[in-house]
Amino acid sequence: xxxxxxxxxxxEVDPQALADAVLAVPGVVxxxxxxxxxxxxxxxxxxxAGVAVRDDGVEVHVVGRxxxxxxxxxxxxxxxxxxxxSGRPVDVRVDDVTGPTPPAASxxxxxxxxxxxxxxxxxxxPDPAAPALPAGG
Length: 137
Known about the structure:
This protein has 137 residues and is an alpha+beta fold. The protein is built from 2 helices and 8 strands; from the N terminus they run ββαβββββαβ. Strands 3, 6, 7 and 8 form a 4-stranded mixed β-sheet that branches. Strands 1-2 form a two-stranded antiparallel ribbon. A two-stranded antiparallel sheet has the order 4-5.
């Protein structure tokens, strides 16, 4: 890859701006430094993990969410990264997934009563109708 002025320099791409754009993509939970933490860009006084900007391309490693369409998330990440990659090819990898986001409690769902004297919700006690377990083992 080269421009009219010669080869593109890695510093033409702002790794932090690229990381911020990737983190704004729906379905991206975070960035990953890769299995050994080697996927990163180094800036003065800091490191941007999960985004490696090189002269020959940009590598982005993300963490997705279980249940999301990960190929679609990766495609959206690639599109967001390409917009800031100064014409370099962009390689996207989903390194890990986290559990699905729990559904938000609906307005009609009653909250559990607060435990006596505390602010934590009360937990239900044992079921009196459940058979007793035999002692010992």
